[in-house]
Write a structure and sequence with these properties.
The complex is a heterodimer of chains A (about 220) and B (about 170). Chain A contains five helices and nine strands; from the N terminus they run E-H-E-H-E-H-E-H-E-H-E-E-E-E. Chain A is α/β, with parallel strands linked by helices. In chain A, the strands form two sheets. Chain A has a five-stranded parallel beta sheet, sandwiched between helices. A four-stranded antiparallel beta sheet of chain A has the order 7-6-9-8. In chain A, helix 3 crosses helix 4. By secondary structure, chain B is α/β, with parallel strands linked by helices. Chain B has one domain: Rossmann fold. Chain B is about 20% helix and about 35% strand. Chain B is built from five helices and eleven strands, in the order βααβββαβββββββαα. Chain B has a seven-stranded mixed beta sheet, with helices on both faces. A two-stranded antiparallel sheet of chain B has the order 5-8. A two-stranded antiparallel sheet of chain B has the order 6-7. In chain B, strand 9 and strand 10 form a beta hairpin. In chain B, about 45% of the residues are buried. The chains are: A alpha/beta (about 220), B alpha/beta (about 170). At the A-B interface, helix 4 and strand 5 of A face helix 1, helix 2, strand 6 and helix 4 of B.
């Protein structure tokens, strides 16, 4: 089956590409929402502009769409993007990295149902997936949003960060967001040479200043 | 032995609908997963999984489940529909995607068909939908056959755990 993947650039939506490919699915395109609301519950936003770089490194086409990130408009905007994936790439299903959020899962399910696509959430309820993700992929912390994560974890490798026990290890509560630099199915890998940290009151993100795509 | 019967025609959906059940069931005994296309294996308790909203292939194999009519069974979503069909209940075309309030708190639903007035089953839990109050967790009046129209693995794990504790724990 040809599928699209709802892609944010983070560990979960990158890992499900691997899951789908390993099971023999043809990942025909990625779909990324560029949300104007940095607190969107549906679409994760840090380093979203870098998803094009990741898609190039994977050599998978990318569809991006803009959304205000409001509850009412997010779903309509997602449906439009899914229709495009169906028409342009002939996909029959959407794969998402939804893991625990029934808000996220419900919206993806409704959008797929509306446009006639199968909806797959292969890491749903799988809290242990982060162990495999860290084993398989090169992941950095791209954003933090909650006590007690400090500024110095921004840009660090996820596997090198000792997460405090009050922080959910998968970041499912939005405590931190991630960015994937490399994975087994990437044709090339991404190197970030220079970045700034924007941080205040336990909330922050990295801003990439210089990066390269290099051969593996 | 606990038998988990997948109703998924796609491997990607088994990751979502079967694997979470296996993780729960393993705490209560050995688990064997089979497909809706396979013959029923001998087990102490059976869980029939749900599947993707767009997946209806299992409807062509309802007769495969006839041997379960007197066994200890929990059917979830698609599994619920199979059990309802087996016992001749009338499924209505009603769709609901998302969280709804039930008598026991919130539950996560993903269905396109439901039995509004079961005749062979007792209502254990009902839920309020835009189209009315409907039984969503039922038990057969004579057999240890339970069915949920929602996905208990999301918010109501204790339903699965209670079922397995009663019919599978301590057995090999």
């Amino acid at each position: 089956m040809r599928v699209a993947v709802a892609f944010s650039g983070g560990k979960d939506s990158t890992y499900v590409i691997k899951v789908a490919k390993d099971l023999g699915y043809d990942v025909a395109c990625l779909i990324t929402a560029v949300s104007e609301n940095r607190y969107s519950y549906l679409f994760h936003t840090p380093l979203i502009s870098m998803t094009k770089v990741q898609a190039d490194a994977m050599e998978i086409p990318l569809i991006t769409f803009r959304t205000k990130g409001e509850k009412e408009s997010e779903l309509a905007d997602l449906k439009t993007a899914l229709k495009r994936a169906k028409d342009e790439f002939g996909v029959q299903g959407l794969v998402t990295g939804a893991m625990r959020s029934t808000y996220q899962a419900t919206n993806f399910e409704k959008a797929c149902d509306n446009v006639g696509l199968w909806c797959f959430n292969p890491i749903w309820l799988n809290d242990d997936v982060v162990e495999d993700e860290m084993k398989e992929m090169d992941i950095i912390i791209a954003a933090v949003a909650g006590y007690p994560l400090k500024e110095d974890v921004l840009g660090m490798r996820l596997k090198d960060v000792s997460l405090p026990k009050e922080i959910n290890k998968v970041g499912e509560g939005g405590e931190f967001e991630t960015f994937v630099l490399d994975a087994p199915f990437f044709k090339k890998r991404i190197v970030i040479d220079e970045f700034d940290r924007e941080y205040k009151n336990y909330s922050g993100r990295i801003i990439v200043k210089k990066f390269r795509i290099v051969e593996k | 032995m606990i038998s988990i019967i997948s109703t998924c025609s796609e491997r990607l959906s088994e990751k979502e609908f079967v694997d979470p059940l296996v993780r729960i069931a393993k705490k209560f005994g050995p688990v064997k997963v089979t497909s809706y296309k396979d013959d029923i294996i001998k087990a102490d308790a059976y869980i029939i999984s749900g599947t993707v909203l767009a997946d209806f292939d299992y409807e062509n194999y309802v007769e495969n489940f006839s041997d379960l009519k007197k066994e200890n069974v929990l059917g979830i979503c698609a599994g619920y529909q199979i059990l309802m069909s087996l016992f001749g209940e009338r499924l209505s075309e009603k769709k609901y995607i998302g969280v709804a309030q039930t008598d026991i708190g919130k539950a996560y639903f993903l269905f396109s068909k439901i039995v509004e007035r079961p005749t062979n089953f007792t209502t254990l839990v009902a839920a309020e939908f835009p189209f009315g109050k409907i039984p969503v967790y039922v038990k057969h009046k004579s057999h240890n056959i339970f069915a949920t129209a929602f996905h208990p693995e999301v918010y109501n794990v204790e339903i699965i755990e209670d079922f397995l504790r009663r019919y599978a724990e301590g057995r090999i």
